[in-house]
């Protein structure tokens, strides 16, 4: 179902998630791809930056916008290890991302099919082709390891 390139890009998002894990941040990573090239990378940094908006997707989108020198990221794909929350899903729509791939559904905050479906809401001015399940087991394992580690610290 997914191409070798899609798997490659999701592995890059997983690398970003591992950076977050190493820094005791929730291990979520994202990359933005344009014309088969990564132009934005991000991992969760809410704790280290003391910024509730420092989600992986937001950081990757900002990086990509700086690269393209445009606030519209038309033709770009985003690969993220966890289903985006409402804030991030809204940012993806506002950036005009064309395609979103995520690994794992988020039952507590997912806004791309779980609790809400912001990326495919016909009332909004843009919809995003959305695919899930890409490297799901790898992303789940990283999240489970992080929360197990967190429980052991407490």
Describe this protein's structure.
The protein has helices spanning about 5-20, 45-50, 55-70, 85-95, 135-154; strands at about 30-35, 35-45, 75-80, 100-105, 130. The chain has a five-stranded mixed beta sheet with strand order 2-1-3-4-5. With about 150 residues, the protein is of the alpha/beta class.
Question: What are the salient characteristics of this protein?
Answer:
154 residues, alpha/beta, 5-stranded mixed β-sheet, 5 helices
Brief characterization of the structure:
The chain contains five helices and five strands. It is of the alpha/beta class and 154 residues long. Strands 2-1-3-4-5 form a five-stranded mixed sheet.
Secondary-structure topology with pairs:
Layout: H1 4-22, E1 29-34, E2 37-43, H2 46-49, H3 56-68, E3 77-82, H4 86-94, E4 99-104, E5 129-132, H5 136-153
Parallel strand pairs: 3-4, 4-5
Antiparallel strand pairs: 1-2, 1-3
**What share of residues are in beta strands?**
15-25%
* SSE order: HEEHHEHEEH
Distance between the termini: 41 Å
Output the structural class: alpha/beta
Apparent shape: globular
Poorly predicted parts? none
How many individual β-strands? 5
Radius of gyration: 14 Å
Provide the helix percentage. 40-55%
What is the residue-mean pLDDT, rounded to a whole number? 97
Main sheet specs: 5 strands, mixed
Question: Given the structure, what is the number of helices?
Answer: 5
Q: Strand order within the widest sheet? A: 2-1-3-4-5
